[in-house]
Amino acid sequence: MSYSLTLALLLPITAAAASPVIADGAELRQLAGEYSFTEGPATDAKGDVYFTDQPNDRIVKWSAADGSVIDWMKPAGRSNGLYFDAKWNLLACADEKNQLWSIAPDKSVTVLVEDLGGKLLNGPNDLWVHPGGAIYFTDPLYPRSYWERKADSQLDGRHVYLLKSPDAKPLAVTADLKQPNGIVGTPEGKLLYVADPGANKTYAYDIGADGKLENKRLFCESGSDGMTLDVEGNVYLTSRGVLVFDKTGKKIEQIDLPEGGATNVTFAGPDRKLLFITARKFNYSLPMKVAGAR
Q1: Where does 10-287 sit in CATH, by number?
Q2: Does 8 score more than 60 pLDDT?
Q3: E strands of 130-260, at which residues?
Q4: Fewer beta carbons within 10 angstroms: which end of the chain, N or C?
Q5: Is 240 exposed, middle or buried (0-12, 13-18, 19+ CB in 10 A)?
Q6: CA nearest to 286, candidates 62, 3, 56, 9
């Protein structure tokens, strides 16, 4: 059952002056609610944010208009990363049974990926939708206490997969990553960033005409759980707070949080100029100079 929580604005922290991305005089604000582990934020057309609280098996919706939150879907397949497709279906890394879901606006669920040749995925973690409709998702291995399966991998590694269409079979498009996690691509669909926390690195790839990844190169010496982009092409990684890198991989900003680690990040609000940060037991917002990439 859904419920609402009163908006809470706590622990304001004045942002650094003269930031290239943070609005002048902005304050970091703790948002309503207390959770077990927030993750996977995705922003809809209104600028509202859907995020997961995986230990409590729910997808929660945050309203940009008044800051209220409701349980949007529970149970939710122990969903982790989320992303909206062009038809505003909410795609979800449903980790309970290591599946990839498409959740329609009426909350009906279509399982896009159930297994891979009869073998379970390790546990889809994060995903991004190419402007042409194809889905890229990461499949690291983080054993869960609620799994009915064995914790060992049934596959030959931990890869990034490409799902070209809902009825296609996932295709592994990486072969040498240790623990791929955060993933995001550029709006024109030519460049993909993949974080590998297992190696504490983030890589950039060109996306070929066939959807396969080419020209792998090191973007920065930092892994990340979740990630996003702004309209200037800056890349936002989550670690101990939020790290912001320009297109060249140069670090240009760091956003620290009161309790330390951030898990994921997106841009919210009607103008997408509010940075929404998931951080385990709490969420935070921060006004920005730049808007998020659509």
Answers
A1: 2.120.10.30
A2: no
A3: 135-138, 160-163, 171-172, 183-185, 191-196, 201-207, 213-220, 227-229, 235-239, 241-245, 251-255
A4: N
A5: exposed
A6: 9
What does the alpha-carbon distance between residue 210 and residue 289 come to, in Å, rounded to a whole number? 36
Tokens 């703790």: give the residue: 30
Residue 18's pLDDT band, with cuts at 50, 70 and 90, is confident
Is pTM beyond 0.85? Reply is yes
Tokens of 99: 């599946």
Do the beta carbons of residue 93 and residue 60 sit within 8 Å?
no
Write the CB contacts of 293 (distance below 8 Å, at least 6 apart in sequence).
186, 187, 228, 229, 230, 231, 233, 267
* Cα–Cα distance, 264 to 239 (Å, whole number): 9
- The residue ranges of every structural domain in the chain are 10-287
Structure tokens at 172: 């592994």
